[in-house]
Amino acid sequence: MASNTEMNKDMSRFELGRVTPLDGDRTQLTLTRDFAAPVEQLWAMLTDPAKTEMWWCRVRGRARTGSSFDLKWLNVKDEGHGIETDWWNGRVVTAEAPHVLEITNAMHGTIRAELTANGTGTRLVFTNVISVPEEVILMSMAGWHVHLDHLQEALEGKSVDWQHWWDDFYPCWEEIHAAYTAAD
Q1: Is the pTM of this model over 0.85?
Q2: What residues in the chain have per-residue pLDDT under 70?
Q3: Which residues belong to any copy of the Activator of Hsp90 ATPase homologue 1/2-like C-terminal domain (predicted)?
Q4: What per-residue string of b and e applies to 78-117 under the rule 16 or more CB within 10 Å gives b?
């Protein structure tokens, strides 16, 4: 696997996502990306634990409606070194392979990925409905933006070195967070 230093760190190569206030304290984050990969390959990146760990997190569970689908973040900082978080329990709301995966998660609300063939590639519409304090909304949006950049790299066979994520990619997260803040 490629190291983080070989991965693209240009977080502006994809358009900014959209933040939509919903009822009460819920907010929907939406990012749309076009990938030069078939739908089935994107589906595997979202559902195969060996592949999700390349760009997103560790997954425990199966992509079947009603099944558990727990997430463990791998890029949490502790004294300058990457550490793992506890498992955040979740459940699959909808799994319609290879087009729709919707999960709920104790930490991240409702996460939905819709995959549509788009010529020779795939369009991903990624949404996350969260209930968090206002100051956390754009932080979450920047986080998803960076993870989806990591997905582009994973499709090219590169994997994030989670132990060094903070040194390698936190500056990228800060850059894209500043872009979201400026656009708000």
Answers
A1: yes
A2: 1-5, 7-12, 76-85
A3: 36-156
A4: eeeebeeeebeebbbbebeebbbbbbbbeebbbbbbebee
Q: 93's torsion region: left (phi>0), alpha (psi -120 to 50) or beta? A: alpha
Question: Radius of gyration (Cα) for the chain, nearest Å?
Answer: 15
Percentage of the chain lying above the pLDDT 70 cut: 89
Query: Is residue 98 reached through a cis peptide bond, with omega within 30 degrees of 0 on the bond before it?
Result: yes
Does 133 sit behind a cis peptide bond, omega within 30 degrees of 0 on the bond before it? no
All domains in the chain, ordered by first residue = 4-183 (3.30.530.20)
> What is the residue whose two structure tokens read 């903070």?
166
- Stated as kind and residue range, the H or E segment containing 17 is none
- Which pair of structure tokens corresponds to residue 151? 């997905």
Backbone angles phi, psi at 64, to 5 degrees: -130, 135
